[in-house]
Amino acid sequence: MSKMNGAQSLINALEAAGVDVMFGIPGGAILPAYDPIFDSKIRHILVRHEQGAGHAATGYAQATGRVGVCIATSGPGATNLVTPLADAQMDSVPIVAITGQVPSAAIGTDAFQEADIRGVTMPVTKHNYLITDPADIPRAIAEAFHIASTGRPGAVLVDIAKDALQKETTFNYPKTVSLAGYNPVVEPKQSAVLDAAALIAQSKKPVLYVGGGVIKANAAKELMQLAEITGVPVVTTLMARGAFPDSHKQHLGMPGMHGTVAAVTALQKADLLITLGARFDDRVTGKLSTFAPKAKIIHADIDPAEIGKNRHADVALVGDLKNILRALNPATKAALAKSAPDLTPWLNEVYGWRSKFPLGYDKPSDGSVSPQNVIERIGKISGPDTIFTAGVGQHQMWASQFIGYEKPRTWLNSGGLGTMGYAVPAAMGAKVGAPDTTVWAIDGDGCFQMTNQELVTCAINNIPIKVAVINNESLGMVRQWQTLFYNQRYSNTDLHSKRIPDFKLLAEAMGCVGLRCERPEDVDKTIEAAMEINDRPVVVDFNVHRDAMVWPMVAAGTSNDDITVARSMAPVWDSQEL
Amino acid sequence: MAIHTLAVLVENSPGVLARVASLFSRRGYNIDSLAVGPTENPKVSRMTIVLNLEGHALDQVSAQLFKLVNVIGISEMKDSDSLKREILLVKVANNAANKEIAGKHKAVISDETTTTISIEAVGQSFEIEALLADLKPNEIRELVQSGLVALERGASTLADRTLSTMGTANESDPNSSTADYQN
Questions:
Q1: Which of A136, A139, A182, A275 best tests the B interface by mutation, with the highest count of B CBs <10 A?
Q2: Average pLDDT value for chain B
Q3: What is the CA radius of gyration of chain A?
Q4: Is the Cβ of A186 closer than 8 Å to some Cβ of chain B?
Q5: Does B57 touch chain A (CB under 8 A)?
Q6: Residue in B26, B69, B169 nearest the CB of A181
Q7: What b-and-e string marks burial along A61-75, b requiring 16 or more CB atoms within 10 Å of the CB?
Q8: Taking the model in full, what pTM does it have?
Q9: Per-residue pLDDT tens digits for A267-315
């Protein structure tokens, strides 16, 4: 076996793990690894900030289903990865972060650029490693990729001391990974499958409550089968947009704080929630004690700790969702063949809510551009093959509401952690993973100013993403809450970003095409102009009305029963619906 | 009943105690005591964790704990079917009353000076508590307790159940409160 240093062993291990691209920045402690990267077939994309590397890895992973990889040096390089690691972990995205660490003899001495990144990231990763012996590198890398990509996917960090990268070792990549404490259950219990099928066959008001796990498990096809076998209406959470086509007649839209009236109300009135890869997040349930009060719960998830965490499960299906649905679909079909309840009254009711309370928005009366319209038009013009990413806030909610998603892995956003600044670097990663696909980052002017430096990376590395800055010159969602709950006292939410910076010039300074749209009649042609540019990134500064709000809304901590469709306006129900 | 004792087999790897402590801290679970040490298998350490779970379900705590990659197996140690012991070392004034209390509780006087005695007691929690209750608080100069350790009664071992099935799927039912978590 040939001798090599730990750095070469690391790069060989990453190649053996199937890595084709990684995003990173070199620095002192990781420097030995960058020498063999120079000769590796792995494409390394030099980002401008480590946070960009982390979100790019996440965007790549979300778009492709593969493990995303980012690499950084010790100390500040590593701590800059903390936000993307926490973000990926919260949204169950498989990423592996490689960080350099100070030499093992210096660990614990407060050395230059030393940070205990294993300690720092323990609560925000699925697992992490500190490697001080070069012989451990291949095994740690193999385990990291195994842990990140199996079970409930997540973030794994491998911190490697500089001397471990420099010392001589032999490369021996393990053929299989066996971990005493890690063996995710992937096959559901047959008895639970039968129980679930029986519950479905008894239920008169069922709803399929679909979460991001369906996308992670690549189970959209199997979900479609279950929906069509049962005829049950479907809601898709923020993380599940695209898991079930928006155009499908059974789709009620997104549930939760800014969900559709039909989706929110269907969950509230249901007698059964068929929960697939969703986790009863507070943004979906509203006040938990009043959530879906009459519903029995079937809870299918790869993570046993999600069962019963927020809501008791009447039937727990622990396993990979693809396997679960492959077992549940025929079992349900058989159960329904024996006795199928008439869902017609329920379907009439929920589809009635859908047609009575569709998503909508008012065009600004002052003739300014409507942010919802911009986002809706981008969706229409760019079409359902496009990958969309979003930052966090109003533009994110509108992008979830007003773009029609037809396919999994076309909607990437920061659902759990709510990371402002996610959109641009995630779009970069998605475009690297899917270079032939149009990638639009729908961003806000606040978010954009957190991570736009990665447009330089995109411009230099021929990653032609498109960015729509929905510029309402505010931290819009915070401003919305100030409007609704803080007597219009707009403390520190005015960003002045129609004045400074000039996003068009900023884009051009970063090697992108900069466009601006200030009039409603220019929206379509500006989007079409952006669609024509494929040799460079393009940024469109959409100057939009600043007082537009996201509706419907369930205020934080209140019951989903108190959904409002506009300010202080509850849905007007027909009396028999209440 | 909010007090539960868990026996947890963990890989003997760096940082494992921090991982467990960090998990309990960030999820708001209260630890009454935690004792950890090596086992018959040099690759495995065993923790005995006494938890005060007001407001948290034991199943949820076990499931979260089991998600840690280094946690190999978990079993609840119930009073009815396990041996539970703690060690108390307490330094008190050297006088006849204190010696009598030690004798009454079958505790050993392990160190003696002209002014102090150090009493060593091993027993179940209620026995330790009874001894402490008899000692006058203002006479206790210093005390240290080991935290509880627990071992299942009978021939069965957690290690057998856990390590013999290493590498196979976890069959435990996450909705069952009596389930062991093991790989």
A1: A182
A2: 88
A3: 24
A4: yes
A5: yes
A6: B69
A7: bbbbbbbbbbbbbbb
A8: 0.96
A9: 999 999 999 999 999 999 999 999 999 999 999 999 999 999 999 999 9
